[in-house]
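User: I'm curious whether this sequence folds into something compact or stays loose and floppy. Could you predict its structure so I can see for myself?
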Amino acid sequence: MTTTPLSLQDLRRRIDAQAKAEPSWRFWGLYVHIWKPEPLQAAYQLAKANNGAPGVDGVTVEAIEASGLEVFLEPIRHELATRPYRPRRLRHQAIPKEGGTGGRVLAMPTIRERVVQGAVKLSLAPIFEAAFQPGASGYRPQRSAHAAVLRVAEAMVQYKPRVIDVALHAYVDHIRHHLLWAQVAQRVHAPDVLPVRKLMLHASGQKGVAQGGVLSP
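Assistant: Here's the prediction. I'll summarize afterward.
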């Protein structure tokens, strides 16, 4: 099981508590927490545990650890700290959907970009996690499909047999960036965090969110 360092856990707990206590609070000063060694190391361990395929540069976890993790992370930390960071392009891979009807395209970032995205997510996720409804399960930590099924079973026992099934066609492919940023800016007042996040988003095109990245969900 992968755990984040204690100092990072403390930061995330404080963000979570603040977000729940003050739903209109806008967070600031988050950027420094992205390029510290602790979040970058934690983000790398999460990327490693996910065991994803390499990006366009072909760099693998095995190659990184053969050269030394610090050798890999220090240039990333330096680029983020001094602001010349630019994400590399995505590697696209088409995969079929279950049932054989159509397919979808995964856009896979390099491990370098997964580390940066993971570090950003570690700071931002607790802010927005606090706003979810209790019954929401998708893409949330410590939630599973099994828990969602159990919730449905409990509702059926309470004589709530109706199910509303809604699907938006190719939703993530058509998310409009300016609307997304307007929502994010309601909770995050961080001119230094949002430009980095925008660079990651624009790497996938002028609209939509690339499926396959750490920050995509």
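Summary: The chain has eight helices and two strands. The radius of gyration is 19 Å.
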